Amino acid sequence: METPQEHPESLPPFLLAFPGPLRDQLVAAVLSGEKVSTTGLLAEYEVEKEELPPVGERSALIDSDGREIAVLELTDVRVMPLGQVDLQHALDEGEGYDSVEAWRAGHEAFWHSDEMREALGDPSFTVHDGTLVVAERFRVVERR
């Protein structure tokens, strides 16, 4: 019998950012081991009517060309107010941030982008300290 590890196409997709240079940068950071965490908006799950992924779930890391690059396993999933994100989480995102303030500025620029606002269906969407975010930690279990 075939297992999901042998055929990642049977796994849910793990998507970082939108296709393009930012996704390519983030996928490379995952593959290098620099990126072991990511942060999304709880509102994204609500708009998509998706449940939060459980710890232990495996998913296929997808690049900008739609290719399955690796299999990831979630090791931690937390919902918290944006204002409670700490330095370790910001560092573990592997994007070169050296402070929570720099991490937040980078994420706010993404979350306030036209593309994200369109995806959320709210052209004036903005975040604040109380905005609920989903902080996920993961590990690469297989490279494709």
UniProtKB/TrEMBL annotation:
Domain ASCH as annotated: residue spans: 16-142
Superkingdom to which the source organism belongs: Bacteria
InterPro entries named among the record's database cross-references: ASCH_domain, DUF984, PUA-like_sf
Pfam families per record: ASCH (PF04266)
SUPFAM superfamilies recorded: PUA domain-like (SSF88697)
Name the UniProt record assigns to this protein: RNA-binding protein
Organism the protein comes from: Streptomyces camponoticapitis
